Amino acid sequence: MASTSSASSPPPTAEVAAATEYLASYLNQTLHLHTTDGRMFVGQMKCTDRDRNIILAMTHEYRQPSKSDITLAAERHAREGRAGNVKVDMKKRFVGLVVVPGEYVTRMEVEG
Fold first, then answer.
1. Among residues 60, 61, 77, which one has the least CA distance to residue 69?
2. C-alpha angle 58/22/103, rounded to 5°?
3. DSSP alpha helices (H): ranges in 25-109?
4. Which of 20, 32, 82, 102 could anchor a disulfide with 109, C-beta 3.0 to 4.6 Å?
């Protein structure tokens, strides 16, 4: 008869403990996550996992304006007789609770 014992995981190394503490310091902080496709997600960090996926709550997504938006802004700029560069804001939408895959995160900033 084989006996089953509950295998406990080994205690975390100092490096793992430091990394865990570091990530825990970001919980409920507002993060700006930049992704490989040029988007930026701004929301409160709720958790992460081994694959570096990041869960954000109360999140807004920011995207680069489309070429047609840029063209319209340039035309409006010219009609108004303004000189200099044309400024076009990023597109913004509320997306709520999101999972941002860690493999696509290029930069992470803490709002502060």
1. 77
2. 60
3. 67-79
4. 32
Which domain CATH number covers 36?
2.30.30.100
Q: With beta carbons less than 8 A apart as the criterion, state whether 41 and 100 touch.
A: yes
Tell me, what amino acid is at 44? Q
Number of domains in the chain: 1
CA distance 61 to 33: 10
Give the domain range for residue 37.
14-63+91-110
Instruction: Convert the pLDDT of each residue in 18-72 to its tens digit.
Output: 888 888 899 999 999 999 999 999 999 999 988 889 999 999 999 998 899 888 8
In a domain, 41, yes or no: yes
